[in-house]
Design brief:
alpha/beta, binds zinc ion, TIM Barrel, binds D-xylitol-5-phosphate, single chain, 225 residues, 8 helices
């Protein structure tokens, strides 16, 4: 059950002083998801944005709000992000002791749960919960910062996840997004797509060159002429 390629600009690379304008601009430029990187300075060595900012951005776009939580613990903050307007809420298995409970919490709030795998986290971490998620995110950099280089060893992980997701979807009849995040650009996007990714997060590559370039940048990542 292969879905079309969708592009998720990471607003980590946007101009934080003009975030509403930036979200409107990438929406108009053809973004499918708005990827929102939430960092706590504890689970990852950087500190970004919280639910108040998600709430403030919500009226600026009809795109899916794809909220990537790099925080530990995640559970206490999940209701606030749901309330703020997140559509997908993705967590890392290392962020808490009860991953299944966390995914059920997201689902109980009417949102789509996702799981994010760090470069060193094995696929087996999700083996028993894959039927409970709507998205699997493969980190192709170590989480914390934009502008890092794509880690090639993750291509094999994407391939293996494609097989796992296809087998799961055949059983359940429900599509699961396979998203890649980190170092996605015109060179690495085709590799990720060929390996089976169908949602590409891109911060640096989307926002490069300013608003007049956003539509062309997104088209190029999608592989469109
Ligand atoms: C890293 C974040 C990414 C990051 C991607 O922790 O999860 O979403 O913003 O940035 P680029 O596309 O610049 O690698
Ligand atoms: Zn991210």
């Amino acid at each position: 059950m292969r879905q079309p390629v969708r592009i998720a600009p990471s607003i980590l690379s946007a101009d934080f002083a003009r975030l509403g304008d930036e979200v409107r601009a990438v929406t108009a430029a053809g973004a499918d998801y708005i990827h929102i990187d939430v960092m706590d300075g504890h689970f990852v060595p950087n500190l970004t944005i919280g639910p108040a900012v998600v709430n403030a951005l919500r009226p600026h776009s009809k795109c899916v709000f794809d909220v990537h939580l790099m925080i530990s613990p995640a559970d206490p903050m999940i209701p606030a992000f749901a309330e703020a307007g997140a559509d997908i809420i993705t967590v890392h298995p290392e962020a808490g002791p009860h991953l299944h409970r966390t995914l059920q919490l997201v689902r109980s709030l009417g949102k789509k749960p996702g799981i994010s795998l760090n470069p060193a986290t094995p696929i087996e971490a999700i083996a028993h919960v894959v039927e409970d998620v709507d998205l699997v995110l493969v980190m192709t950099v170590n989480p914390g910062f934009g502008g890092q280089s794509f880690i090639m060893s993750q291509i094999e992980k994407i391939r293996r996840l494609r097989t796992l997701i296809d087998a799961t979807a055949a059983r359940t009849g429900r599509a699961i997004d396979l998203e890649v995040d980190g170092g996605i650009n015109a060179d690495t996007a085709p590799l990720a797509i060929a390996a089976g990714a169908d949602v590409l997060v891109a911060g640096t590559a989307t926002f490069a060159g300013g608003p007049e370039r956003y539509a062309a940048n997104i088209r190029q990542l999608r592989g469109a002429p």
